[in-house]
């Protein structure tokens, strides 16, 4: 089966009479009425943590909107031929990553993508503790209310029932991920009042992406088995000892499936997710072999790549199903 089903040509590509119509609306969005907004920190985060989910909902006719908060200017560059783009050389990684993200969105079938405040409005802040954290104009230095106001304008315009972002720690403590969380949560509050973008809008459900530790451990076991069977590791950029990352290197780890509210089974879109991740070639290496599909960041440490993605409710209203719900729109009025 094709990783990304072709769009249904019978569906109208515009519906001017519908109040739901927004720029970039994908075919079928009006028919489905489902609108999903994802708020991510850097180009590549969307594909790595929620790529299969985005591809699945887009293919099913939901209107999927991605808001990326920075251009990821401080990322480490994997391909040697592109090393000159690095911030301590040409400092040209941001514009290059705009192109990578556009390619990734094509792989996922997502047509509505925006940068918060426009491309380059907020710069990548670097890892926590880096001197770049203090640079004026970086996302970590942004006024949360101002940034949330920009995002609230998109929320009022797109009117998503469901919003996905990170937990309060940003999944793993990166300043831009923490800030993305703060801005997204604040924007949901702002959007309850009318303002730029349109009438007041209540986002019915906010989720934080996560991944249960037992699932990760299983994924890493598969990775090691593939290596034992002769698949080639490590990935480019590897300089360490083992060639494999560990569960604690993965953002958004929760201890068990009981901490999860919704499990999105999008295995059918694993190839689309892998292709989207590979489009972020300066940041991600992807390898598929008989033992599975795996990836690495610039440290070259292998990680499992899965088409099953996990989410927990931001409001803490546990469903008590241990991840048994399979739809982010479950219980949400369309
Ligand atoms: Zn990131």
Structure description:
- Catalyzes the deacetylation of 1D-myo-inositol 2-acetamido-2-deoxy-alpha-D-glucopyranoside (GlcNAc-Ins) in the mycothiol biosynthesis pathway.
- It is an enzyme of class 3 (hydrolase).
- Its cofactor is Zn(2+).
- This is 1D-myo-inositol 2-acetamido-2-deoxy-alpha-D-glucopyranoside deacetylase.
- The chain is α/β, with parallel strands linked by helices.
- The chain has one domain (35-313): 3-Layer(aba) Sandwich (Rossmann fold).
- The chain is 28% helix and 16% strand.
- The protein has helices at residues 29-32, 45-59, 93-108, 144-158, 175-190, 213-228, 270-279, and strands at 35-40, 63-68, 112-115, 162-165, 205-212, 253-254, 262-265, 285-289, 292-296, 303-304, 308-313.
- The strands form 2 sheets. Strands 1, 2, 3, 4, 5, 6, 7 and 11 form an 8-stranded mixed β-sheet that branches. A 3-stranded antiparallel β-sheet has the order 8-9-10, with helices on both faces.
- The two termini are 29 Å apart.
- The model is unreliable at 1-30 (pLDDT under 50).
- It binds zinc ion.
- Zinc ion (ZN) binds at residues 41-42, 45, 174, 177.
Radius of gyration: 19 Å
Q: CATH class, please?
A: Alpha Beta
How would a textbook summarize the main sheet?
Answer: 8 strands, mixed
What portion of residues is helical?
25-40%
Figure out the total of helices.
7
Task: Predict the CATH topology.
Answer: Rossmann fold
**N→C terminal distance:** 29 Å
Compute the average pLDDT: 89
Structural class: alpha/beta
Secondary structure tally: strands: 11
């Amino acid at each position: 089966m094709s990783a990304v089903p072709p769009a249904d040509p019978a569906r109208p590509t515009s519906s001017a009479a519908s109040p739901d119509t927004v720029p970039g609306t994908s075919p079928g969005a009006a028919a489905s009425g489902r609108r999903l907004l994802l708020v991510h920190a850097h180009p590549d985060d969307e594909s790595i943590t929620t790529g299969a989910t985005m591809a699945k909902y887009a293919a099913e006719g939901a209107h999927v909107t991605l808001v990326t908060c920075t251009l990821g200017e401080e990322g480490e560059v994997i391909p040697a031929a592109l090393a000159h783009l690095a911030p301590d050389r040409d400092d040209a990684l941001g514009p290059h990553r705009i192109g990578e993200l556009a390619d990734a969105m094509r792989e996922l079938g997502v047509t509505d993508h925006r940068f918060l405040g426009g491309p380059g409005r907020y710069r990548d802040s670097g890892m926590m503790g880096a001197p770049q954290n203090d640079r004026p104009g970086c996302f970590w230095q942004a006024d949360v209310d101002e940034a949330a106001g920009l995002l609230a304008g998109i929320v009022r315009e797109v009117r998503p029932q469901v919003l996905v972002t990170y937990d309060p720690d940003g999944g793993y403590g990166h300043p831009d991920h923490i800030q993305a969380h703060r801005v997204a949560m604040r924007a949901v509050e702002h959007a309850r009042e009318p303002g730029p973008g349109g009438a007041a809008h209540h986002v019915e459900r906010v989720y934080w992406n996560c991944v249960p530790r037992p699932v990760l451990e299983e994924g890493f076991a598969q990775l090691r088995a593939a290596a034992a069977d002769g698949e080639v590791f490590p990935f480019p950029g590897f300089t360490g000892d083992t060639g494999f990352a560990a569960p604690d290197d993965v953002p958004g780890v929760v201890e068990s499936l009981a901490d999860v509210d919704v499990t999105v089974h999008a295995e059918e879109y694993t190839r689309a997710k892998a292709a989207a991740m590979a489009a972020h070639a300066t940041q991600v290496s992807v390898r598929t072999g008989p033992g599975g599909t795996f990836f690495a960041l610039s440290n070259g440490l292998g990680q499992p790549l899965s088409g099953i993605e996990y989410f927990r409710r931001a409001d803490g209203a546990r469903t008590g199903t241990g991840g048994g719900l399979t739809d982010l729109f479950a219980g949400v009025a369309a």
